Amino acid sequence: MRRLRHWGPGLLLLSPSLILLAVFVYGLIAWTTKVSLSDEHNARGSKGFVGIDNYKNLFTNDIQDRFTHSLKNLLIFTLVFLVGAMLLGLLWAFLLERGVRGEGFFRTVYLFPMAVSFIASGVVWRWLMNPLKGDGAGGLNAVFGSLHLDFLQSTWWTNPDWGMASMAMPAVWQLSGYVMALFLAGFRGIPQELREAAAMDGASTYRLYRNVIFPQLTPVALSALIILGHMSMKMFDLIMSVSGPQWLTEVPAIYVWQTLLTSDYAKSAAISIVLLLLVAVVIVPYLIYTNRAEKNT
Amino acid sequence: MRFTRRAAIAVVGVAALLTASACGSSDDGGDGGSGSKKVEVFTWWADGGEKAGLDGLVAQFGKDCAGQEFVNGAVAGGAGANAKQVLASRLQQKDPPDTFQAHAGAELGDYINAGQVEDLSADYDTWGLKTAFPQGLIQNLTVDGKIYSVPANIHRANVVWTNKKVVADAGITSDPTDLASFIADLDKVKAKGIAAPLAIGKDWTQLMLFESVLITDLGADKFTGLWNGKTDWNSAEVTKGINDFKTLLTYTNKDRDALDWTDAEKLVMDGKAAYQLMGDWEAADLDAKKFADYAWFTFPGNGTTFQWLADSFVLPTGAKNAEGTKCWLKTVGSADGQKAFNTKKGSIPARTDAVPADYPKYQQAAMADWKSATQVPSCAHGSACTQGWQGAANSALGAFSSNQDVAGLQKALAAAASQFVKK
C-alpha cells in the first residue's frame, strides 16, 4: 500500500501518454508486422499467414530488383547527405566560433533554410536541377552556361548512377544550418578554462582544436548524425516534390507509398518494417549510449 | 524536473480531454441512415472541367430522379490517389458510399473479386445500354459474363498531337500510316534542327507510347491478349515492339523523366517538338491554353484501333440507398446524362447514339471513330490492368528510360504479367 502511494501518482500521470503510445505506436507496429506476414496483396483481404515470404520476395524476387534498387538509392542519398551536412555545418560553426562580425546575421542566414518545408524547397530545386544541357538548359545549368562553365552542367537527379547524390543537395542545403547550430552550441559549452589551460601549455591553435575542442564535440556530432540519419532514412517529401514517384529516385519510403496505393498491403507493410529496422539500427545504439552516459553523470 | 501540483493536474486534464475527443469523433461520417433518399456520390472530381461535368450530371440527376438528393462525396487531390485511400478504408469498414467513381475495366477487378460491387447486367438490359454502347466496350467491361459499372465518358489514349507549323516546315504533307513512315517524318523534322521531335514525359507517358507501339506490332487482338493472359509477353513480337519503342525514344527529349505530360505538351506548343502521344484530354487542354495550331492523328499503324479508358460508376454492395444509386447510374448511362457530362468535361459519350453537333471539333472525329473502331483497353489508365500491374509496368518503363535494356524490360513485363494476370 505504501509502495503504491509511492509510485501510484506517477503512474497515473504517465498513463494517458503510456496508453496512447501503446495503442498508436507499439500497437500499430505490431499490426503492421502482422500484415507483413500475411498474403494481403489486394483489396480482397488476407487469406492467411505466409511467414517471411514477403520479406524474402523483397530481396530476391522483386521485379527488376526494385527494392534493392531503392535501398541502393537510399544508401547514396544518406551518405552524401550526412557527409555534406556534417562538413558544411562544422565548417560554418567553426568560422562563426572563430568570431566574425555580424555573427547573429550569419547564424540566421545559415539556419533559415531549415524553416522551409521540404515540399516548398523541393519545388524550387526541381526547377534549379533542370536536367537539360546546352541551349534548352534551365536552372543551375543555365547559370553555368551563361558563366561559360559548361563543364559544370549536369543531368542532376536524372543520372541513373549518381542521381541520388544530386537529390541530397537540397537536403544538405536545408540541414547544414541546423548542424551548425548544434556545433555552435557545442563550442560554446566548452569551458573557457580548458582553452586557457591549453594556451598555458603552449598548444598551437591546431593542437587546441585537435586535442581539446573536437574531442569535447563528439556527443554533439553523434546527436547530429543520429538526427540527420533517421531523417534521411525516412526521406519522402523532398523526393516526391523534386522528381515525383519514379524508378530513378525511388527510396523505400516512396516504395511503401506506391505499393499502398496499389492495395498491396502485405508488401508495403513488409517494406515499412524493413525501414523501421534500418532506423532502429541507427537509433537504438544511440539510445543505449545516451542512457549509459546519463547514468554515469 | 520539478512540477507544481497544479501543472500536473492540468497535464492530466488535457490528456484526458484529448483521449475523450479522439473517442468521440468516430461516429459521424456520410451515412444517411436506412431508407434515406440521399445518394452519396464519391468522386475525385473537385475542380476544373471534371467538376463542371459532375455539376452537369447532377443537374440531370435532379430532373430524372425527383425525390432523390445528391450528396457530393468528392475527395480532392493526388489525381484520385487520396480518394482511393479513403474509399479503400470505407469499403473495409463496410461503410460504402452509395456509388463511387472508378476506372472502367481491369482496375475494377479488385472490387469485383472482393464482392464489394454488385452485378449490373440485368439493369444494362433494362436501360438498353447493351445496344447503346459499342460491342467492343461491352466485351471489355464484361467479367465472367457480368458487368459491374456504368461508364460516364470515354477518352482515347492512342492519339498523336502535332504542332502544325513545325510539321509543315519540315515539308510533311500527309499523316504517317505506319511506323516506318513515322520514323521517316521524325527524321525530316530532326533535319530542320529540332533535336527532339517527339515530346514525352515520365514513366506513365512512356508506357502510353509503348502500348501504342505494341498495338501496331501485335494488332488489336493480340494486344488485348497481353492483358488477359492469352498473349505471351516473351514472344518475338513483343521484343520487336520494345526495339521499335527504343528507336522512337531516340527521337525524344533527354529530360523526359523530369517532365509531366503538360511539360511535354508545352514543348509541342512552343515548337520545340513536333509530336506528342497523349490521351485526348490534350484537346481540351490545348483549347483551354488558347493554342489553336494543332492537329492529331491515330498512332501510326494502329489503324482503326481505339484505345479507350473510361470513368465509371458502380453500385457498391451494401449501399444504403440502392434505389437512388440505380437512378444515378441510369442517369449516368442515359443520352441526356452523357451529354450533360461530356460536353463539359471534354470527353466523348460511351453511347453511340449521341449527336455530334453538340460537341467540339476533335470530339466529333473521335465519336465517329468510336462507333466503327476496334476497342482495346489501356494499362497506363487502368482499363487493361489492375493498379498493381500498372505500378510494376510504370516502374519497368522508368528503368528502361535510363538503362535501355531490351531483354530486361521484356523480362520485367513478363514477370509482372505472370504475377498479376487474372488475380
TrEMBL record, chain A:
Tell me, what's a Pfam family for it?
A: BPD_transp_1
Q: Which UniProt keywords apply?
A: Cell membrane, Membrane, Transmembrane, Transmembrane helix, Transport
**Where in this chain does the record put each ABC transmembrane type-1 domain?**
71-288
Q: Where are the transmembrane segments?
A: 12-31, 74-96, 108-128, 162-187, 208-231, 269-289
InterPro entries given in the database record: MetI-like, MetI-like_sf, UgpAE/MalFG_permease
Protein's membrane topology: Multi-pass membrane protein
Where is the protein localized? Cell membrane
UniProt keyword Zinc present: no
- Family per UniProt? Belongs to the binding-protein-dependent transport system permease family.
What is this protein's record name? Sugar ABC transporter permease
Q: Which organism is it from?
A: Paractinoplanes durhamensis
Q: What is the lineage of its organism?
A: Bacteria, Bacillati, Actinomycetota, Actinomycetes, Micromonosporales
UniProtKB/TrEMBL annotation, chain B:
Pfam families named in the record = SBP_bac_1 (PF01547)
Ordered alphabetically, the record's keywords are: Signal, Transport
Where does the signal peptide begin and end? Answer: 1-22
Q: Which InterPro entries match?
A: SBP
Q: Which family does it belong to?
A: Belongs to the bacterial solute-binding protein 1 family.
- PROSITE patterns, A to Z: PROKAR_LIPOPROTEIN
This chain's protein is named: Sugar ABC transporter substrate-binding protein
Which organism's genome codes for this protein? Paractinoplanes durhamensis
Which PANTHER family did the record assign?
Answer: MALTOSE-BINDING PERIPLASMIC PROTEIN (PTHR30061), MALTOSE_MALTODEXTRIN-BINDING PERIPLASMIC PROTEIN (PTHR30061:SF50)
